[in-house]
Each structure stands twice: as C-alpha cells, then as structure tokens.
Design brief:
InterPro entries: Host-pathogen_enzymatic-act (IPR051200), N2O_reductase_N (IPR011045), WD40/YVTN_repeat-like_dom_sf (IPR015943). This protein is mainly beta. The protein is 0% helix and 55% strand.
Length: 351
C-alpha cells in the first residue's frame, strides 16, 4: 500500500507571507488547517527558517508596492518564533534598504540578505550573524537591484540574480568579494545544485524588452557554471519563469507566469500559471501542471515529496504531489482577507 504524502508531517508547519496582509500565516502541514497568524511590517516578501536557532526571518522590502513601483524602500527584517508565533525582534539594516532575498548557512550561522543599491553605491548582500542577529558586513554585487540570492551547500559561493542588469553576480562568501558575472538577459529566481557546481537561473527578467533586432530572449532556465561564471545550457519553457526551486530529491521546479492573449488591447490578463518539473541531473522535463495566477515562490517538504507554490495574484498556495504531479489541495490565502501570497517556509516540528 502506497504511503500518503501527508504521512509523518504531524507537527510540521507551513508559513506563508501575505504581501498585502501584511501577515505571516501558519498552516498545519498534515491537515492544511490554519493554526495562527503574525502581523508584520508592510510589504513582507521572503521567508527563511533557521533550524539551528529555530527562528523564522521575514524580509520587508517596501513601504508599499513592489520592485520598480513602490513608495519607498524599507530597511527591516522581522524575526519570528514559529512555535509561539510571536515576533522576537525587528532588525533594522539602515542605511541598507530594500531587503529581499534570504539565504541561510546554518553551519556557519550566517544569513545573507540581498539589498538594493542607491545613487552612490551598487546593490549588495548583507551578512548577518544568526546568533546575535547583527550585521557582520556587506558584499557588493555591482548591480542596482540584486533580488533573489542563493548559496552553495558548502557556504563558499553565492549567486545574486539581478532583474535589469545583464548578468548574475557570483560572490566569494569567504572573502566577501564579487568574483564573476554570468551573462544573462536579466534574471529572476534561482537555485543551486546539490554539489554547488551549477546555478539554475530564471531568465530573462519579466520586464525584459525585445532586443534591437526585435527578438525577445528565449524563456527558460539558464544553467550557470559556478567555476567559470558562464552559461552552459538552457532549459526552455513556454513562458517567463519567476521562481526556481530545487528539491532534496533532485527535481528542479519552475513557476511559469502565463498571460491571456488580447490582440485588441495588447498584453492580456493573468491566466493560470504553470509548474514545470525538470530533472536537475538529466535536465529533462518530467512534466507540467496548472497552478494559480502568477506563481512567485516555490518551496518543498524536506523529503522532496511535496511542492508548495505561492501565487501572488490569486493569493493561493497549491500543494503538489511531485510523484504523481497532481495538486492535492489549494490554500486560499485571499479568503482570509490577506491578499498577495508570496514567501514560503516549511518548518519541521521541534525535536
């Protein structure tokens, strides 16, 4: 008898950001029942769970709005106890601003936070000590708006995607310096291979315009060689990819943003998005399925069996069985009066 994908998840919790809530909501991972909500600062975007300190970090990027269309950039990270669902501290990174991407090196107790640039300084990555919750330094990325950030499992190399800059920034985390630029036509989400040799980068940037010859860059995932900082392959998709996630079982997940065609008025409305699944090793497509409107964040369960796809326009989270490629259920965050589902974190139960 096949084991249910829910088996063994009792006590585990899924945390979901509502960007316009602004809240972080918690759901039982076995029953999908809502178990609590924490109100946070305006425009929360991404989440990162630190199992060593057992704390949940939440980045708030703007006072209102989003990248390229906001009323001002925030400077804070909110630290939450996911067990008591209470705020532990609000860490102010000022004068750094626009915190967004979060990547954890639990072994070295380091949290990396991408921040946007200003007139006199490019964007970069702030390094935080997760014990003291205080900044230790900054790594420049030579781009105005590093957005997503990911590190290799060894904690030696980091990759920052830059929406409008034509490259992915590659940084040496031990020396704290920029070491390479992988040329891509703008980039969105990313994930790093289990051996740290490759980064899988969503490209082009959703706002990319056509090239001078009228050709729009092919949509998909660029495979970046970490050693040479160069693109070695492309996994093609039918639509712009926003989030990219790699599961513990080696499946590469891409969230495609789909639009309806409207010849009369130009760009159409959002259509149901698509979750496309590849093998990270063979780079072959394993299948696709329909999800909510505008998938923006993807995470997975520690065993790699379930995927969680947050869709910001429909404000839903689709829970997908990655063995059958079927949606098991959909969490409707908007029904709770908390629109804009975005950041996700899977939190295993306390030992």
């Amino acid at each position: 008898m096949q084991q249910s994908p829910r088996t063994g998840r009792e006590g585990d919790v899924l945390a979901v950001v509502s960007q316009s809530g602004p809240t972080v909501s918690f759901f039982d991972a076995a029953s999908d029942q809502h178990v609590g909500t924490v109100e946070v600062l305006a425009e929360p975007h991404e989440l990162c769970f630190d199992p060593t300190q057992r704390l949940l970090w939440c980045a708030s990027a703007y006072h209102s709005g989003y990248y390229h269309a906001n009323s001002g950039r925030r400077t804070e990270l909110t630290v939450i106890d996911p067990d008591t669902r209470r705020i532990v501290e609000v860490v102010d990174l000022a004068p750094e601003h626009g915190p967004h991407g979060l990547a954890l090196d639990a072994a070295r107790r380091r949290l990396y936070v991408s921040v946007e640039g200003s007139a006199d300084r490019p964007g970069g990555v702030v390094v935080i000590d997760t014990e003291t919750r205080r900044p230790l330094g900054r790594i420049d990325t030579d781009a105005p708006g590093p957005h997503w950030f990911a590190i290799d499992p060894a904690g030696k190399t980091g990759f920052a995607t830059n929406k409008e800059a034509p490259f992915v920034s590659v940084v040496d985390l031990e020396r704290g310096v920029l070491t390479g630029k992988a040329e891509v036509p703008g980039s969105e989400g990313l994930a790093v291979s289990a051996d740290g040799t490759r980064a899988f980068v969503a490209s082009p940037y959703a706002g990319t315009v056509s090239a001078p010859d009228g050709e729009r860059p092919a949509t998909g995932i660029r495979v970046v060689d970490a050693r040479t900082a160069s693109v070695t392959d492309t996994l093609f998709t039918d639509n712009i990819v926003m989030p990219v996630h790699l599961t513990s079982s080696g499946k590469l997940l891409a969230g495609e943003m789909c639009m309806t065609a409207d010849p009369a008025s130009g760009p159409g409305r959002h259509a149901p998005g698509r979750l496309t699944v590849f093998s990270a090793d063979t780079r072959k497509q394993l299948g696709t399925l329909e999800v909510g409107l505008f998938p923006l964040t993807i995470t997975s369960s520690p065993d790699g069996r379930l995927a969680y796809v947050a869709c910001v326009v429909s404000s839903t989270v689709d829970i997908v069985d990655l063995e059958t490629l079927q949606v098991l259920t959909r969490l409707d965050i908007a029904k709770r009066g908390e629109p804009g589902a975005h950041g996700l974190a899977y939190i295993p139960r306390a030992a």
